[in-house]
Amino acid sequence: MTHEIAVIPGDGIGQEVTPAAVEVLEAIDSVDFEFVEADAGDAVLEATGEALPQETRSIAADADATLFGAAGETAADVILPLREVVGSFANVRPARSYPGLDAVQPDTDIVFIRENTEGVYSGIESEVTEGVTTLTRVITESASREIAEFGFDYAKQNDYDDITIAHKANVMRETDGMFLDAVSAVGDSRGADYDTALMDALAMHLVMTPEQYDVIICPNLAGDVLSDLAAGLVGGLGLLPSANVGEENALFEPVHGSAPDIAGEGIANPSAMVLSAAMLLDHLDYDEEGDRVRTAVESVLESGPKTPDLGGDAGTEAVTAAIVDEL
Amino acid sequence: MTHEIAVIPGDGIGQEVTPAAVEVLEAIDSVDFEFVEADAGDAVLEATGEALPQETRSIAADADATLFGAAGETAADVILPLREVVGSFANVRPARSYPGLDAVQPDTDIVFIRENTEGVYSGIESEVTEGVTTLTRVITESASREIAEFGFDYAKQNDYDDITIAHKANVMRETDGMFLDAVSAVGDSRGADYDTALMDALAMHLVMTPEQYDVIICPNLAGDVLSDLAAGLVGGLGLLPSANVGEENALFEPVHGSAPDIAGEGIANPSAMVLSAAMLLDHLDYDEEGDRVRTAVESVLESGPKTPDLGGDAGTEAVTAAIVDEL
Ligand SMILES: CC(C)[C@H](C(=O)O)[C@@H](O)C(=O)O
Ligand SMILES: CC(C)[C@H](C(=O)O)[C@@H](O)C(=O)O
């Protein structure tokens, strides 16, 4: 069986790390892939007037899964609609520290389960009168319940014990109140243990004692900010993969952006992108292959060549070759 | 001249740390204070049906400044209206590390200038139909400009060079777009240097390289979360004071809450509360006295008795006495 994978490198270092992920997937002999490349991002906007061409949407919609690299200025116009195109409701963001790497907190292993469709991302905004703008933050019981089911399932399947529900329901009483109630209700109905945490206090605790957290279920913006915070704990965005998961389809992308400061130099860290490809393997039920890729990345992070963001002087290609060697 | 100070200890450790601040202020011979105590919080709600009695509002409104300890479950019903009562538009939250204390990032010295009146704190929420809730996030040009004027002034007066404007205008285009434009325009009109940063990326950079930041001007919720994050960098909420500053009036409070887990044991760290009293002194133009209090707190943090949150075994009273001794 051949799996059709849409490949959207995008801008900046997306052009450099996406081929690394494809190379690693091609090195997995037990799985057959057909890669279909598609364009999106700043360069495409300039060339065609559209950051996310209809053809790219169709390719992503029809593929078995999508690999996305990075977008620059147009990131929000590319990644937010793409998350919709693949119908993803859950954004899964594992943040873990690795032996052999300098980390602010070397004992971190947390998976953020970020609601991926609503909150302040609803996009309902206007300048209601001169100098006064409003945004409508939307939280529904159904989306909250869906992310909760996903999160509690994820924790169970991956043997994670500590589940935390992040919220700011003391201030956003109706909206985060509904999120908190709906997610808690799912936990209760399963007899699951979980904690709840105000997102501000949680930011502090994550910095000081990340080892106390496993799975954090959060509204959209909280997940955005807290997962980047956790990237800081483990050594930077070059290490964090993510999966945007829908009922039928899914899109895999590093948490980092297009990094215009180093783009074109061939020194971007491919780890986050390759780890995103490992999540793609999991998603297609090639768990063993996913684990093989993760183990290879870990082993290179521990004792192989490193890119400059991790204090080394190796390039993207050398690191990718080392990962492929370890497979 | 006697300054009338409203004193609202509130709940939990608020009852323990507020007297510490009063004791320190009383030890400053060069300034005359009259303290007027008032009630607010969970216990008052239980006793009277109101978490923030009208009398307390009046006392705070009429005082030259207010000291607030902490509130528990009712925190949002107490501190949000109190910030309004004193007309505060700016929440000033310095986060710095101290020699002699364990800190995740020992080289941190950042002041968050948090917009204190709008954003998701506007309180306009409802369940529009069963299972669907909305919150209206409001950002105005006038409030954004006001916090910007305050922030750029603050940076200048305190010789801080690196000013960063936090936002998420790539997603909240109208609302944070207005915030970003208005704050930038104030900076530009003064010929000030400043950077802008997406709040998610900023969370990561604050964790990894806090030494690169001085003053961060932010919308309400961003300030709430990022300042707690910074508390984690420097050793916990027991160290962060804050000022809620209005045109005429102001309220000073530690960033921490009522800490029900240790309340009543006499071991709460009074530093954040005493440092809040130092900010009160600054506010009343007793800058030298404010500095004296800060120096005393620093010296006790460096080599005096420590409360358990900082790894010591001293109680609140012993630490307070040591601070008074150092004055
Ligand atoms: C580019 C931006 C729209 C996006 C987001 O906010 O989700 C990014 O920060 C991310 O976390 O993937
Ligand atoms: C208690 C709560 C309403 C408050 C806030 O969100 O402002 C608190 O977190 C703070 O930061 O002072």
Automatic annotation (TrEMBL), chains A, B:
Keyword hit for Oxidoreductase: yes
InterPro entries for this protein: IsoPropMal-DH-like_dom
Pfam families (UniProt xref): Iso_dh
Record keywords: Oxidoreductase
Domain of life, source organism: Archaea
Domain Isopropylmalate dehydrogenase-like: 4-323
Family to which the UniProt record says this protein belongs: Belongs to the isocitrate and isopropylmalate dehydrogenases family.
Protein name: Isocitrate/isopropylmalate family dehydrogenase
Organism: Haloarcula saliterrae
Phylogenetic placement of the source organism: Archaea, Methanobacteriati, Methanobacteriota, Stenosarchaea group, Halobacteria
